Amino acid sequence: MQQFPGSACNGFVSGDDQDLDRLFVQLSQQNVIGLKLLKAPPTIGKGSVFAVILKAAIPVALWLRQNLSKNCQEQVDGLINCCCIHELPEAVKKKRLEDLPMPPDTHIGHHLSLLWEDPYRVPPSIEYSM
After folding, report:
1. What digits encode the pLDDT tens for the residues 28-64?
2. How would you write 10-22 as a 3-class SS string?
3. DSSP state, 106?
4. How do the domains of the chain map onto residue ranges?
5. Are 59 and 116 contacting, i.e. CB atoms less than 8 angstroms apart?
6. Deepest of 46, 86, 106, 128, by most Cβ within 10 A of its Cβ?
7. E strand or H helix at 62, and its extent?
8. Cα distances (angstroms) measured from residue 66 to each of 23, 38, 63, 108, 109
């Protein structure tokens, strides 16, 4: 995987309220490694943002499972700005644990989802017999 200097945020595209074709073009840029969504995706499957993630082969996506009443941009950006990309899974876990005692409607830790593709995990080799 290409090394990106600085915070994880440098390689992320915001995908909220975007046309899916335009989002695909943005995600296909060479310097983009991830997608962030501040709103819960309205649909799944064909014609959804998840289909665009698969088509663009983006290895990282961070989204909120529920729409929160307050603007979460600052909290999400703060989370991904505080670490390098390889530290993001641990930063998400830490945020979830920090927010656990807090009211769920106001803290992103209750609603964070992280898609993290492991580039070193390969499918098993299966020998088929006839």
Report:
1. 998 898 999 988 888 888 889 999 999 999 999 999 8
2. HHEEECCCCCHHH
3. T
4. 8-116
5. yes
6. 106
7. strand 60-64
8. 21, 9, 9, 9, 11
